[in-house]
Amino acid sequence: MDRRIRKSQEAIIEAFIQLIAEKNFEQITINEIAERANVSRGTVYSHYTDKYDLLDQCIRTHFVKLIDSCLPCGEQALFPTEAALHYTFRYLDEHASFYAAALANQGVPAFRNRLQAVLIRGFDKQMDMGGINKMMDKGILVQFLAVAMTGMIEQLVTRATPYSATELSGQLWALMERNQMVPPSAPLSISTKLF
Amino acid sequence: MDRRIRKSQEAIIEAFIQLIAEKNFEQITINEIAERANVSRGTVYSHYTDKYDLLDQCIRTHFVKLIDSCLPCGEQALFPTEAALHYTFRYLDEHASFYAAALANQGVPAFRNRLQAVLIRGFDKQMDMGGINKMMDKGILVQFLAVAMTGMIEQLVTRATPYSATELSGQLWALMERNQMVPPSAPLSISTKLF
DNA sequence: CAGATTCTGTACAATACTGAACACATTCCG
DNA sequence: CGGAATGTGTTCAGTATTGTACAGAATCTG
């Protein structure tokens, strides 16, 4: 992609995220965004049809980062290690103002739904239905955990919890393990056990 | 000026200053600068004929800032107040790495000369040759003070002095006063004395 | 030494950005 | 109410930047 496009888009998104952290989405104007991004107004329109499109793509961009932070080991699993979960929560904590806005603004419930969908898909792959889960319905269990995780994330980014990102992720890791939400064992874990 | 020009130049100069703070001027390549500035190599050449031109314009840019910091009250005087001198020294302290490089690199003695020239011109205007200076040669006195100031600035930015910017500027202000290097009295200072 | 690599400076067509203008909608305010 | 101000979305010609290519200089390296 042309370097100019990359630079402009980054500047616009950065400006937009700054603004959304400062004021309500509806009050933000294209003029403000262009000014803050140090870009011509026409440039904004050349990339995004309007504010809502910008917000949408912005969420998408953040989502990529968020998902990446859940999947540090290639494409293997959501939160393959406790450290990975910690990292994700710290990332969310740092960008809380954006995520809070994305979650809070009515008209953007899409965000919560997308996050849940990703988590449900990921958890479904990793759930161990043996042991204490033998008598459970997998769909319900997965949904239960995904909704819980989404809710806790919402608590974190909206500052609705007194607990820190670290405390939360630590506790949540324990709860995931308790429910046998284990990441698929890596190939080398077997050979590791042999020695 | 076209916004693109401003943005590119700022990025290039910023990148260059970063690099000069990290390594020797001669080791810096145009490629590095372009890469760091996130700009095409051709763009660098469209604004600056080569590294040396870039350094030159860079010094010029910094010089404008530096002079501005000496002249906070319009165009009246160099260091019209002790606070102004303090501000200048703090500014120098913050950008020490750049100024150190500009002063240190042989091939750039121009910098020291320019600084001295500015100071000499400014001091010459402000020198009070009455009182203890009655028997002195003005040219020598002015040059003496300008060279001293330049030297002290060099000491500061090259970290060749254990004293802080604040300590130095405080002492230097006293020395300037002692030598009757007073800023031209503002019109209202007379009326101030009347009350 | 020769070959490989990197840097330099220049040229160019393709392209993204610019600022200005425009008609229209919305909001603000006396 | 009415008009002043501000925002929207579009168009457009002009311009700065882009990536690429090139030849020659400089530097590295076996």
TrEMBL record, chains A, B:
Name the UniProt record assigns to this protein: AcrR family transcriptional regulator
Keyword DNA-binding: yes
Keywords: DNA-binding
Domain of life (superkingdom): Bacteria
Domain HTH tetR-type stretches: 6-66
Keyword DNA-binding: yes
PROSITE patterns (alphabetical): HTH_TETR_2
Coiled-coil annotated residue ranges, if any: none
DNA-binding region, residue intervals: 29-48
Annotated InterPro entries: Homeodomain-like_sf, HTH-type_Tx_Regulator, HTH_TetR, TetR_C_Firmicutes
Annotated source species: Paenibacillus silagei
